[in-house]
Amino acid sequence: MIAACRGGSGKTFLSIGILAAWRAQGKRVIPFKKGPDYIDAGWLSLAAGRPCYNLDAFLIPSEAVLDSFFLHSREGDISLIEGNRGLYDGLDYLGSTSSAELAKLLAAPVILIINSTKATRTMAAVVMGCMHLDPGVSITGVILNRVAGVRHEAVQRKSIEYYCGIPVVGAVPKLTRQRFPERHMGLVPTPEHDWAKDAVEEASRVVNRYIDLAALENIAASISMQREEQSIKETNTEPVQKSPISIQIADRVAGPVPESQIPKIGVIRDSAFQFYYPENFEALTRTGAELVFFSLLSEKNIPDIDALYIGGGFPETHAAILAENIRFKEALRSMVEAGLPVYAECGGLMYLGQALVLKEGTYAMAGVLPVTFGFSKRPQGHGYTVVEVIADNPYYRIGEQIRGHEFHYSNVLQWNGKNANFVFAMKRGIGFLDGKDGVCYKNVLATYTHIHALGTPSWAKAIVNQARAFSSKKKGDRP
Question: CB of 271 within 8 A of CB of 319?
Fold first, then answer.
């Protein structure tokens, strides 16, 4: 795990560089992101050349976090987890759901990045404090970031190695160029910029020059050997039993399914709608669906699909193009009236509304839901959510509690719907309006709350079942 004492210390930049550098060496590197973040995960995925999986103990039960990590990590040679915020920062003073707690759960060695600015020997005290706050967290190395020069590096390196007894595995100077501009609370999404690959290559060059990759690999390898020895002991002493979550992750549709019975779920994925967990895609395909990816920025027609999944993103940055795609909007409204199942999160919710009101003007959206959105300079909803299902809908049973997260700058300017349209009551978080979220119309459910399929296993089954029902209806309607 790559962690730090605080946010903004360079975790993402250096994690990207390490992944890209190892990948260039021919290693199969599996990236993970602690927390619900989509944008950092997108950069990590680009650097590694494979999906980045989110590990979040608030959204996902601990046993499912473990299962997901070991299931996906065995596909590669080495795994890297980027932490979030400060190492011990969690939901409370005990640090629940922090990066440190995840590191302990996975028995992952932690490489601590420290901001070296305007300090020398004192940083040894900082590292020592992190090591002693929770001895169960295995801090095994340090990377100095933003060092001012050779003497500055030497004093910090010797102090940390002398007092803390762990190696400094890298020292990165202050960089004059910033190739990773920030939007809101994190990096700009990779699909929005053609130069993203150049930025990743630059991070790789920095890491190759200033970080001891062999030392990092040796630390990871030593933990892997310890795990293997422990696994052999456990296998020889007691039978191995899979947890229910493990079975859920690893299962597949039993037996061959005729192609005619496989429902097709459309997924709008482009630079306007890009926030999806790969685990959500995997859950849909495991449950028996075929995913059909397409872009709303280039496609004028809706493909032959039995359900539609629209994730989050930044539709406001593409408002003019979305507004001009009139044929698609008309077709979508017609299919919704015919019963097409649609599940939309955040950016998808905004697209399904009447309009987006920006400084540049008002842009007509799909018009499926009777709501107009505006935008604020500050987040209108930011953090974890807990919702209770309070009304009938196609996807969740009444009384079910769902954990998710929200992050949006948009707000409701005008709502012409009814209270009966809301199916979620907010137990934690802001939601859509007046402590409610989850706008339901026919077979459409649109919400600010993002869910993770491993924490909400009913979600994938419900969408696939709705898709199958709609597919059967279409076939029955044909002469």
Answer: no
pLDDT at residue 229, rounded to an integer: 52
Which residue matches tokens 């803390």? 164
C-alpha distances out from residue 142 to 17, 21, 89, 147, 418, Å: 16, 18, 18, 13, 55
Question: In angstroms, rounded to a whole number, what is the distance separating the alpha carbons of residues 453 and 460?
Answer: 7
- At residue 441, the 3 state secondary structure works out as strand
pLDDT at site 176: 74
Query: For residue 47, what is the enclosing H or E element?
Result: helix 39-48
What separation in angstroms does the CA of 343 have from each of 15, 190, 266? Answer: 33, 24, 10
CA distance 19 to 45: 9
Domains, the chain, ordered by start: 2-234 (3.40.50.300), 262-477 (3.40.50.880)
Task: Evaluate whether 311 touches 348 at the Cβ level (below 8 Å).
Answer: yes
| From 5, 52, 346, 440, the catalytic residue | 346
* DSSP-assigned letters across all residues of 131-196: HHH-TTS-EEEEEEEEE-SHHHHHHHHHHHHHHH---EEEEEEPPS---S-EETTEEPPGGG-TTH
Q: What's the pLDDT at 254?
A: 43
Residue 417: per-residue pLDDT: 94
E strand or H helix at 310: strand 307-310
- Spacing of C-alpha 174 from chain mean position: 29
pLDDT tens readout for residues 388-430: 999 999 999 999 999 999 999 999 999 999 999 999 999 999 9
Which residues lie below 8 Å from residue 288, measured CB to CB, with a gap of 6+?
253, 257, 262, 263, 464
User: pTM to 2 decimals?
Assistant: 0.88
From 406, 294, 298, 303, select the one nearest 350 (Cα to Cα). Answer: 406
Half-sphere exposure in the Cβ direction for 176 (13 Å, CA): 0
**Distance (Å, whole) CA 216 – CA 218:** 5
Instruction: Give, as one character, the DSSP assignment of residue 360.
Output: T
Does the active-site annotation cover 346? yes
Q: Give just the sign of the alpha carbon dihedral 385, 65, 138, 185.
A: negative
Chunked into runs of 10 residues, the chain (479 residues) has average pLDDT values of: 94 96 97 94 94 96 95 95 96 94 96 95 97 96 96 96 97 77 47 72 96 96 65 47 50 53 94 95 96 94 96 94 96 97 97 96 97 92 96 97 95 94 97 96 97 96 97 73
CA separation for the pair 218, 232 (Å, rounded) = 21
The pLDDT, as a whole number, for residue 222 is 84
Asked whether 117 and 17 are in contact (CB, 8 A), the reply is no
Neighbour-count burial of 218, counting CB atoms closer than 10 A to its CB (0-12 exposed, 13-18 middle, 19+ buried) = middle
Residue 244, pLDDT score = 45
Closest CA to 276 of 465, 93, 459, 92: 459
Contacts of 150 (CB under 8 A, 6+ apart): none
